[in-house]
Specification:
Blueprint lengths: L7 H22 L4 H23 L4 E4 L13 E9 L1 H5 L6 E8 L2 E9 L6 E4 L14 E5 L5 H9 L3 E5 L2 H9 L5 E4 L3 E2 H13 L3 E3 L14 E2 L2 E4 L1 H17 L1
Parallel strand pairs: 1-2, 6-7, 6-8
Antiparallel strand pairs: 2-3, 3-4, 4-5, 8-12, 9-11, 10-12
Helix pairs in contact: 1-2, 4-7, 5-6
Protein name: 3'(2'), 5'-bisphosphate nucleotidase
Cofactor: Mg(2+)
EC number: 3.1.3.7
Amino acid sequence: MTLTDLDDAALAARLAYEAGQLALDVRAGSGLTGKALGDAGDAAANRLLCDAIRTARPDDGLLSEEEKDDTRRCSQSRVWIVDPVDGTREYGEARADWAVHVALAVDGVASIGAVALPDLEGGVVLRSDQPQALPPMAARPRFLVSRSRPAPEAEAVANALGGELVPMGSAGAKAMAVVRGEAEVYLHSGGQHEWDSCAPVAVALAHGLHCSRIDGSPLVYNQPHTYMPDLLICRAEWAERVLAEVARIAGSH
């Protein structure tokens, strides 16, 4: 079956998997390390993703972290948003907490997504069209935070709700950790771009998770400026309390 024959969800999943495997091949065979390895893996995965999307969906828009932004996308209803290697540091260190993101935003909504976690056994791909039952929650909420720069809001909310912090690498890995039952809350306030969250949000929404800005407003994609200040992905059972605590903390400053 050619790429053109695949439906959007199957296309996203196949490309995320193939880009992840290509990045693994680059790491294994290039002899590179550090930033040079990250750049090479990013570039190779980006070429695969962008060439395939332009071939399979020539009438759709495309936004990639690794390409100059073609702002004509802003007038298009359907726009693919990709992050070839989300978490280049973790990728270079052969850790498991990096990801490949492939998403389709329709009229600004993260509608279809696939997130590959290539360093997990078997090359796991989580898909918006194949949601699984969510695992049981921990009694004490686990908050995913950056390995190096934990968001102050996440620390404060976790403290207020009796939660614990779980350091992890890429945004996609954090979001998928909530889907996989490894944590309950991913609250990020340090700024990201659309490609950091579009595919993870599509997958998380399909699994019944709450996804929004940290003030509760919707996440809107395919904007002229790709910067997104903050993000909340969490189990629905915790959403109201987390949002209320964020508002309380904001109001006290």
